[in-house]
Amino acid sequence: MPSEWVGPAPRGIIDIKDKKLEILAVIQRVGLPYTPINVGCWFQVWVPKIPSGRSNHAHSSYIDDRIIGDGNRKFGLTDLVDIRKYVAQIISDARTLNRRVFAYT
User: Fold this and answer.
1) Contact 79, 105 (CB under 8 A)
2) Annotation marks residue 20 as catalytic
3) Number of H helices, E strands in the chain
4) Which of 20, 49, 74, 85 is catalytic?
5) What residues have CB less than 8 Å from 46, skipping those under 6 apart?
6) Fewer CB within 10 Å: C terminus or N terminus of the chain?
7) CA 12, CA 43: separation in Å to the nearest integer?
8) Is 70 left (phi over 0), alpha (psi -120 to 50) or beta?
9) Nearest CA to 77 among 48, 45, 41?
10) Over the chain (105 residues), what is each successive 10-residue block's mean pLDDT?
11) Which pTM was predicted?
12) Which among 50, 43, 87, 80 has a CA at the least distance from the CA of 65?
């Protein structure tokens, strides 16, 4: 179960994602079973800044809060409490073998 914590991105954008794709390619090439699981962003670390400044105390310094395009892009958020439940269900389901899974709250 290779880690997918970086999230979706095409090659050449995020170095660590490129490394993860290389590792997955090796896993696939040698025939090992795999299930990459992406749980999106965590509610607990994604706190957007709002114009009033009332969320500044909870805003993580490493979160990029820029709005891209018109701001109408969907993305997944997951509560940390749910991740273990999702992973247990995913790895016990034979349909997920050798497939990517996106799980979110």
Assistant:
1) yes
2) yes
3) 2, 4
4) 20
5) 60, 63, 77
6) N
7) 27
8) alpha
9) 41
10) 73 87 93 91 75 74 65 81 94 95 90
11) 0.71
12) 50
